[in-house]
Amino acid sequence: MTKWSVGLRRCGSSTPRELLSEPPAGTPTPPELANRTIAAKVVVADDLAVPTSSGMAKAAVMTCWDLYWNSYNWAELPGHPNPGSLWHQPKTYYSSDFGGMKMYSYSYLANCGGYARHRIYYKSAGDYYKHHDYEVAADHWQAVKKGSVHRYRKVSYDGTSGDTRNGKYTG
Prior knowledge:
Largest sheet: 5 strands, antiparallel
Distance between the termini: 43 Å
Strand order of the largest sheet: 1-8-5-11-2
């Protein structure tokens, strides 16, 4: 038994036999594996790019008047609901206002100036627990999807000037 298969078995998984054995001599190589080779030693890669996560905000707002989704439960562009002001009050959107428990919270926040904080929560045993908390810098935007099971959820935004907020609950 190889070191790889022992590790898999400890996790409670079974290891497919194809991973543990060489194919019989003369077996054709599948086209998607034709240019790959098996290394005799462990291969180490240095200087790899760091992947971005959903917790990071992306630079350069598309525009402050763009909405992220085609369909949404709430949408606030700068100047909503008062066109004479770009200021948005802090606001929380509850899944119970949109049909009850949902599997996923989708939320978008574009910060076109000022302070903007983006928080997503789920409810368990009567209490809300923070699932995501991130301060979106000026001239940055962030789209976040959180969830996997049916729960009551909420999305909160802090008040700021010139931001766009929208989101939806699905599932």
